[in-house]
Every structure is written in structure tokens, then in C-alpha cells.
Amino acid sequence: MVPLGTAVWLIYILPLSLAVFARWPALPVATAVLVCVAMALAFQKDNTGIDPTVAAVNRGLAGIVYLCLGFLGRRLIVTRGKLLDTDWITGTQVAVSRAVQGDLTAEKLARQVLQVLADRIGARAAVAYARNGHGHLRLAQWGTDGDALAERVADDEGHLGRAVTEGRILQMSLAPDQALGWATGLARGRTAHALIVPMRDGQLINGVLEFGLDAAPPPRVIDLFERIGDKLGIALRSAQYRQQLQELLEETRRQAEELRAHTEELAASNEELEEQTRALQDSQRRLEAQQSELEEQNAQLESQTQELEEQRDALARSRRMLEDQAQELAQESRYKSEFVANMSHELRTPLNALLIMSRLLSDNRGRNLSEEQVRWAETIEASGKDLLALINDILDLSKIESGKMDVSRDTVEPQALADKLVRAFEAQARDKGLTLSAQVDPKVAAFSSDRQRLEQVLRNFISNALKFTERGQVVLHISPAAQGIALSVQDSGIGIDASQQETVFEAFRQADGTISRRFGGTGLGLSICRELADLLGGRITLTSAPGKGSTFTLILPAAPALQSPAPARRSLPAPTMPEPAPMMLDALPGVEDDRADIGAGDRVMLVVEDDPAFARILYGLAQELGFRCVCVGRADDAVRAARHFLPQAIVMDVGLPDHSGLSALDRLKRDTTTRHIPVHMVSADDYTKEALAQGAISYMMKPVRRDDLATAIRNLETRLEQRLRRVLIVEDDPAQMLGLKALLTSDGVETVGAGTAAEALKICRSQTVDCIVLDMTLPDASGFEVLEQLDGDGTASFPPVIVYTARALSEAEEQRLRRYSKSIIIKGAKSPERLINEVTLFLHQVVSDLPQKQRDMLAASLNRDAQLEGRRILVVEDDIRNVYALTGVFEPHGATVQIARNGREALEALGRINDGAAPKIDLVLMDVMMPEMDGLTATREIRKIDRWKGLPIIMLTAKAMAEDQNQCLAAGANDYLPKPLDVDKLLSLTRVWMPR
């Protein structure tokens, strides 16, 4: 627009000058090029004015100047950038130098360095590691989660190890799932780039820094770390040296303090030595002064010295004699205690045979003894049990004297203790017309003691009080005492004369030891009580007068230190004669039942359950249905309670603490006084077939709903109210039908006959049938088809089925029948007796209500146990008396007994069975103590053989120590029974473990 000759192109200096202030070095050069292009274009547009050649030269020169200025501007920007980077690096170095100043620990130094550098380079997260042995230990982190970081990195592990090995800075671009994480209170993220910087201490790399960045770091960051890597390494080494120096200073200071203390002690010792030296010097002067006097008395002293030496030798000989005598007494006492303990164990072996054979005689299975002879046998058995109680007392006494009595600490609730003891003895007190009560002071809190030993002492007190009291009352008091608790038993009995109160507490001493005494006993009970009181850290006192009763008091400390029995005996007064233990039914903790409130005509339900919570549920249901409820938690207590209370119904768990509920069920159903009681089994395990086969009325698996429990109990109640039982006899032979009806009909049993399968099914659909006696061969169908139709027909009742047939059944057919039938009876010489046994069992008939003929047949069937009949039992026992007794137990039940005298013979017998040279064995009764090979070793060897891993083994022992049961079960035994053997328990355990 402007004619040539006007220097309007000079205005292009303005954009060129502005480009110099930009950050991009290429911008001035690009601007100069653009200016040159613009001047060239403008020159082509208008040639008016001055000579175009001059204008072209001017503009050409101006273009060259502009290009030079452009390159100068680029150089200026580059130089300015380097100056800025140098200034930034210098500032960062200054900040880092300030951060590492001061007496810093390595961790604090690392934290400050990370904070300064991460902020300067714009890092999101950072972590510092320092050399530690053959690896690097994490010192600090910045902006990241410490739990996600490695605590220690090995020299050759990962890129950190690579940076250490190569000794150079590493850069990495990472995927999002591999990147180092950072976090704030409100945000979380991951860095896309990682920068790993080694720190050098001279030629050694002593640390590593790692930074997480959003983008690749600029060159000045790399330059920065190249410059400060050595400084940071030296600073880290200095911090570590300072820390080590501080530790050394602390150690030096501590050693200096110890040295100072030792110096003070030495100074004090020196002062004492100086004082002693001065005292010795004074003594020396006095001795020198007395030397002349001593010389005069020297002759006399020599003679006296000779006499003293003779006396000293005599005293030494006397002391040695006393020590020898003390050792002999201690050895004799130990021998006596060991002899008493061993003899108590050895007495159990002949006593076992005596009790078993007296029991067999009293059972009179052959009906060949008179009533008087049966009473004699019962007297022998009762005397044997009394002897067993005496042996147990002697064993307890010997354990205490030999220091082998173990004492534990339990928390004892006073009210619960008193209630348990009163319940245990109230029946005995009621039989004697006495009042038994307990008074517990509410101020007495729970205390610590051995509950079992404490109960043993108080039971002996109460037993003696009931024995020596003919009228009046016996009261148990629990009250506070000075620094402890007083538990006393007060009676209104015969009292004790003062002259006897010094001696009656000695072992085998009795209140009345004459031949005309009115009260029996051995005098051991309270001698044991005295020793137990010593073990519990307490003492026993007595207040008594003839004719005014006695008060025995056990005083225990509130927090006793359980101690060993003292060898010295104290003469504390108290009379004692052990009484046969009353029926003890332990109550479940936290469960109150109705055992004390049962009266004539009350309906009673027995609950056998070791879980207090479930027992309380059953108790509540029993109350709703109008039952008095008794709750026990052990199988043995269940049998005793059933025989004592004769309940109308029993609800029993299978898994009980002492042994299986199936064993208790078997014992109840073998007892003619309790076999009629309907039993409902409840368990967490499935033993339905076993329980129903043994006579249980029903079986329910835990966990059980309350409604299902209520239904089961109502079914028990329905069975109680049902007086007339109906038995369906399915038999096509008219003669057999008439015979079976005559055999089974009684006042409480109605028999209904059916000659065909169709008629039997019709009766089951139209009537309520309590039991079916089924022949397998029928005109229109087989017994299998009848059972299958009953099982599939929802309208027909399916009661217990007893298969009564003359047909020989194969093993497969028996297994098929077991799905439906409660019992399979093959017709034969003894089948009527077995039929009576099975029918009365499943109908829950009271034995005393049966006709005499049926009672006789039932007794004969019980003598021949169907589950044991034809079975072979290997008895491993070295004592011929016990072998004879056990043979007498099992052979009347139809079992065959094979004998082995020790464990080695037992293994040889099983080896012959393996070889097929002898018939198979169904069960083993193994004694523990035998010559050559004991029972535990033999059981372990048997379990090593694959074929005998499932062979039932029941261990028998006369020792009956607390650890015996665990040792037997650990060796591989199925169960354990101590001697003297209880015949009922032995038979019950045998039936439970006998393979079916």
C-alpha cells in the first residue's frame, strides 16, 4: 500500500522483538522467516516510488538483518532457559541442603528429602530405601500407602535392584495397574512414570529414591539428581553415622555410669577393708597383750581341746546316724505308700472275678438256685462292692501320703454347691426320717478351690452326720470366716466324747471300735478329709458333746495356695465310718428340675441331655404337657434315674460325656423294670437304625425345631394313654396263626390275623396297628412286596415289623429287610422266646403286667442275647479267674469265647484267622497289664493291620487311673472299662460295639 522508498518494513522489528520473550527457541527464527516472506510479497505487489533495485537491496539487507536477529533471539531464549534451569537446580540444591541440615536420623532425613524433592519436581508419590546388609530397607514414603510398599528389597530384586547394580538413574513409563499409587483424604490415583535415583557414598550406592510422576521428567530434573545424588548419599551416610554414634555414646554413657557405680562400690569396699585392717590391728594388740595369759593356760586348753575334739567326733557320728535313720524312714514311707497303692490295684483283679461271678449267681439264669442262695450271692456282691469302696479309700490315702494327689483350681458357687449336696442326700435323709437343709450366707461370694475334693470332704461330713443321727436334723452352713470361708455340717446326733476327739481323726480309728458297735465303717473317711483339707490350704475343726450332736467345720482361705500334703499328722477330732455312697444324680449347671417335688401319681419325664440350653427347652415342653421333669447329663445317671423314678417317658441324647446314649438305651431295654418306658432319641449324628433296633420309639436329628419336639413329646404322651396294643399277624398257615395268637395275646395286647398280603394291607389302611409279625411266604405276594407297598402307601400305617419266618435268608436279603424291619427272627427252637422279647420291646409293655408264661419266655430270651448269640469274642487276659468269670458272662448269651493269655497270643490268633485257619472274631476284650506284651502295645500292633483296623476292641484294666482312658483310646481302642467290671456295662458296651 505504501510506495517504494518508504521504510515501512521496519515495523517488522516489533514482532521479531516480541518473539524474543517467548519460551520456544524456534519462534524468533520462524518470525524472521515470516517477515522476510512478507517483505518479498509486499515488494511484488507495488513497484512505484524509488528505483525497485534499490528497494530490493534495502529489503534484502533488512531480511538478512531480520534472520540474524531471529537466530540471535533463539540463542537468547536458549541461554535464558539454561539460566532458569540452573537457577531452579541451584534453588533445589539449596532447599535440599537445608533439609539435610541438623542432627537428623536416617528416617527423618529421608522424609524431609522426599518432601522437598517431590514438591520441586511435581511428583505424586515417592519412597526412599537405604542399604541394609544385602538389600535395601524402606526408610520413608511420601504421598503413598505404606502398607502397599515392600518393607525390604533385595539387591537383585526388581528395577530398584537394577538401579543399584547399574548405578544410574532409571526412567520407566508404567501401565495404570503397575504404577505406584498415591492417595489423599478425598482422592486416589496412580502415577504414569517412575524415576529411580541411586544415592552414592563415594563409589558405594547406599540408598535409592523412587518418584512417581504424571509425565516424563524434564532434563533439568535428571541433571538435578545427577548433581545431588552424591550429596544425598553422603548426607544419608552422615545420618547413619550420627545414629550409630548416638548409640555408641549411649552405650558409653551407660558403661560410664556402671563404671562409676563400680568405682563407688570399690571405694566403699576399700573403706570397709581399712576399717577391718584397723580392727585387726587392734585385735592383734589385744592378742599380744593376752598372749602371756594364753601361754599360761595353754596346757589346760590343750587338754580341753582334746576333749572337745572327741565330743565333736561323737556328735558327727550321731548326726550321720540320724541322717541314715531319716533316709530309712523316708524310704520305708515311700515303700509303704507304693505297696498300698500297688496292692490296691492288685486287689481289683481277684475282686473283679468275685463281683462278676457273684452277679452271675444272683441273676440265676439257670433257675437252679433257691431264693436263699440268690440272697447269699447278692450278699457276696454287696460285700465285694463295700470292699471296692474300702480299696478306693486306701488308694486315695496312699496317693495323698505319697504326694501324688493332683489338686486343681475351680470356681465354686456356694449356693450351687449346697443345692447339689442336699439333692444327693435328701433321699437318704428322708428314709431315716431326718430333715436335711442348707443355709448359705448371701455375703459369701464365689471362691476358688478344688470342687471335687471339696465335695468329697463335705459328702463325708453329711454321710457321717446322717449315720450318727437317729432323729432331728442335719444342716449344712456356708458362711464367711476370719480371712476365709467356713463350711460346716451340724447334726443332732450322738456327739463325741472329749476323750475321743484327739484320736478319731487318725486312719483306721473309729468312734465305736468295740465288738458290739452300732455303726459300721473303717475309720478312713475323715482321715482322708484331713489330708484333703491340708491340700486345699484349710483346716478342720470340731465342736461336739455327747448327746448334743456335732458340728464339723472346714475353714478354707478365700484365695487358697493349693499345697502338697504335709508329712506331719495333726490330731484333729472327728468320727467317721464310710457309708455306701447314696445315689448321686448331678444336676446340669443352670437347670433346675422337679426331682425334689415328685409325688405319688405324678407323671415323670426323664431328660438325658448334656447341653443346658437344650435341656431347658425340653424341660419347658415337659411342663406344658403336665410332666414332672428330671434332667441329667450322663448315661450312667440316666440308667440310675430311670430305675429310681420309673418315668413315663424318656428323651435321651446319643452323644453324652461318659459314654454313648445307645449304651444306656441298651441297658434300659435289657432291664425288665425299665424296658417298657418309651424312649425318644435325639442326636446330631445319624444312629437311627441302631436306636430303633434297640427299642427306641423314635429318633430325631439335631438341630430340632421346638414344634417338632412338642410333637414328639405328644406322641410319647399318646403312647402312654394308649392302654390296648394291636398286633397284626401276617401268616398263611392257620395252625401257625392260632399258635402265634395264643402266644402274643394278653390283657393289654389284641392280635389281628391276616392270611394274605392284600388282607394285611387292608387292615393297615383301616386300623391302627402297633406292631406287625410278618411271614415272608404268602399266597399272593412275598414279604418283600408287602414291606415295599407299606413303605410307599401314605394311607397305611407302617409300625415296627418283626419278620418271623422259617425260610433261610441270604445276606443280601437280610440287608434288604433291614431297610424296613426292626427285627428278623428265624423260626427255630428258641424263636418263640425271641418273638416275645421283640414284641414286648416294641410295644413297650410293662413286664410285671405280662402273663406268667410270657414273663418266663421273656426271661429265657434275655438270658440268650440275640445280638451276642453265635458271635465270637476274643478275651485277652492273663488271670485265669477273670477268664473264667468273663466266660461265665458271655456263654449264657450264646457267644463263643476264645482265650489269649497276652498280647502276643492275641496277634497269633488274629494271624491264624487271616490265614483262614480259624473262624473270624467279632470283638476283642483286651486287658492292659499282661506279661510279654501289654494290651496297649498289642492294640497298636493290631491297628497296623489293614484287615483289623475296624475290629472293635474294648480295653479292660485294674488300675483305673485318670490317664488310662486317654491312653487306651490313643492306642486305637474303641472303648474302655475299668475293673472291677460292671456286668451290665460290659454287656451293654459289647452289644453297642458288636458289628451288626
Give your account of this protein's structure:
This protein has 996 residues and is of the alpha/beta class. Among the domains are: 101 residues; 148 residues, Histidine kinase-like ATPase, C-terminal domain (Heat Shock Protein 90); 115 residues, Response regulator (Rossmann fold); 140 residues, Rossmann fold, CATH 3.40.50; 122 residues, Response regulator (Rossmann fold, 3-Layer(aba) Sandwich), CATH 3.40.50. It has 26 helices and 30 strands. The strands form 7 sheets. The chain has a 6-stranded antiparallel β-sheet with strand order 3-2-1-8-7-4. α3 runs antiparallel to α4. The chain is flat and about 165 Å long. It starts with 12 loop residues before the first helix and ends with a helix. About 4% of the residues have low confidence.
Broad CATH class of the domain at 409-556: Alpha Beta
What is the averaged pLDDT score?
76
CATH topology (level 3) name of the domain at 409-556: Heat Shock Protein 90
Shape: flat
Count, helices: 26
In short:
By secondary structure, the chain is an alpha/beta fold. It contains 26 helices and 30 strands.
Give the helices and strands, then pairings.
Blueprint: H1 13-19, H2 26-45, H3 52-99, H4 106-121, E1 125-132, E2 135-142, E3 152-154, H5 158-166, E4 170-173, E5 181-183, E6 188-190, E7 193-201, E8 204-213, H6 219-363, H7 371-401, E9 410-412, H8 414-431, E10 435-440, E11 447-449, H9 451-467, E12 473-481, E13 484-491, H10 525-535, E14 539-544, E15 550-557, E16 604-608, H11 612-624, E17 628-632, H12 635-645, E18 649-653, H13 661-670, E19 679-683, H14 688-693, E20 698-701, H15 706-721, E21 725-730, H16 734-744, E22 749-754, H17 757-766, E23 771-774, H18 783-792, E24 801-805, H19 811-818, E25 823-826, H20 831-843, H21 852-863, E26 872-876, H22 880-890, E27 896-900, H23 903-914, E28 923-927, H24 935-943, E29 953-957, H25 964-971, E30 975-978, H26 983-993
Parallel strand pairs: 10-12, 16-17, 16-18, 18-19, 19-20, 21-22, 21-23, 23-24, 24-25, 26-27, 26-28, 28-29, 29-30
Antiparallel strand pairs: 1-2, 1-8, 2-3, 4-7, 5-6, 7-8, 9-11, 12-13, 13-15, 14-15
Domain Response regulatory: 604-717, 726-842, 872-994
Transmembrane segments: 29-44, 56-73
Enzyme class: transferase
